[in-house]
Amino acid sequence: MGYIFAFIVFIILGIAVAISQMMSVGKLEKEKLIPVLDSLYANPKTNQKHQLFIANLKYLDELIKKYEGDSFSYNPSNVIVEKLFRHINKYPNDRLGHERFMELISRAKQLSSEYLFQKLLFQIKTDATPLDHERLSACVIKARFLSENLLEPLLDYLERDQNNPLVQQHFLQMAMQIMLLSETKRQRIYNISLQILERNPHKTSAKKFVLNVGRWHFGKSRENGRITIYDEQRIQNDILARMA
Question: Which domain holds residue 68?
Fold first, then answer.
């Protein structure tokens, strides 16, 4: 009984610490970052304010360093994301606005914000610039524990440029990080990869995409997470059938 009580206390303390850390980061964002972003939205060419924003990130670095022993991982708040994208939407080619986004994202070890990825995917959908693709690339490599709500926007992202190997790579990286994705939805993704191959039977990238999706899909169905020789054979058979 004592062990159970100690475990419960440990969990409660852990939650309390996490809440305290989130409040500290929220307070820092509110006091040090958001006012500068608001000022830059009104005066985008003020390099002095931009440099102030970059300088103020040192306070965030200090908090990250302080909490790193507690498995703390920084994720920008929805408010910060909204402020960054408000500027990006109004000034899509502003390099300084892009730099602010990239500097902030560089502080995160992993990104799980549904709001952030919804914004990124929507931006790519509407008049995307090279900077939009760069921002998405920077975030995809840090994506972890994503919401299933991102699946449909992600499928739209793939559909719009399905023959692009980089888009295929980003798509699979994010899909693999969606939590508790059902076998039915994984099968849907696998079927889509086969359709892409069928439309592009001579593209090496399309074949590779099927291989990667198939190994992920069938591996997730196995207890040890590893595909069997029969899974590999099935994928190869599916590839040959679509390339015929």
Answer: 20-109
Whether the Cβ atoms of residue 139 and residue 102 lie closer than 8 Å to each other:
no
Task: Please report whether residue 47 resides in a domain.
Answer: yes
Total domains present in the chain: 1
- pLDDT tens figures, 25-80: 999 999 999 999 999 999 998 999 999 999 999 999 999 999 987 778 899 999 99
The CA-CA-CA angle for residues 128, 134, 140, to 5°, reads: 105
Round the CA-based radius of gyration of the chain to a whole number and report it.
22
- Decide if 1 is inside a domain: no
Phi-psi region of 43 (alpha: psi -120 to 50; beta: other; left: phi over 0): beta
pLDDT single digits (tens) 101-136: 999 999 999 999 999 999 999 999 988 999 999 999
Q: Spell out a b/e string for 184-197, using b for 16 or more CB atoms within 10 Å of the CB, else e.
A: ebbeebbebbbebb
